Amino acid sequence: MRRIGAACLVATSVMLAVAPARADWVPPFRGNDTGGIIAYSMATQSDARQLAVDHCAFYGKVVKFLAVQAYDGGYLSFACRWVPYGANERPLRAAY
């Protein structure tokens, strides 16, 4: 029984050592109902503010920008917040 366990341990170790390490790929624009990120390279080529506003308006929320990593490979992060008190209507979503 010990030999089978040892053989399974060796086989598992060999498979993990041979398998390549890979990092997950993240799309340039990613978000959900609580917020999201926009790749800095995409933010310089398109209107990142409008992308974030449209994204949050889809959920009936308004956008609040949080941080910018202003270098290649960095991200612009934003949060989707509920409409502030005193607002009479939901945010508008631009339909192109």
Description:
The protein has 96 residues and is α+β, with helices and mostly antiparallel strands. It is 35% helix and 24% strand. It is built from three helices and four strands. The protein has helices spanning 2-18, 40-45, 48-58, and strands at 29-32, 35-39, 62-68, 75-81. The model has no long low-confidence stretch (mean pLDDT 84).
Quick structural summary:
The protein has 96 residues and is of the alpha+beta class.
Oligomer: single chain
Strand order of the largest sheet: 1-2-4-3
Computed structural class:
alpha+beta
Give the overall silhouette: elongated
Helix content: 25-40%
Helix/strand order: HEEHHEE
Largest sheet properties: 4 strands, antiparallel
Distance between the termini: 67 Å
Tell me the number of helical segments per DSSP (H or I, 4 or more residues long). Answer: 3
| Overall radius of gyration | 22 Å
Count of beta strands: 4
Low-confidence spans: none
Strand content: 15-25%
Can you give the mean pLDDT?
84
Short key terms for the protein model shown above:
96 residues, 4 strands, 3 helices, alpha+beta, four-stranded antiparallel sheet
Write the layout of secondary structure elements.
Layout: H1 2-18, E1 29-32, E2 35-39, H2 40-45, H3 48-58, E3 62-68, E4 75-81
Antiparallel strand pairs: 1-2, 2-4, 3-4
